[in-house]
Amino acid sequence: MADDQPTYEKLALAYSQSDRARKAAKELCERYDFVPVEQADVIIALGGDGTMLDALHDMLDADRILPVFGMNLGTVGFLMNRYHGASGLMQRLTEAKRMPVAPLKMDVTTQTGERTCAYAVNEVSLLRETFQTAKVEVSVNNRVRIPELAGDGILLSTPVGSTAYNLSANGPILPLDSRMLALTPVSPFRPRRWRGAILPESSKVGFRVNEPAKRPVAAVADSKEVRDVAEVHIEIARDKEMCLLFDPHQALDERIVAEQFVT
Question: What percent of the chain has pLDDT over 70?
Answer without folding.
Answer: 97
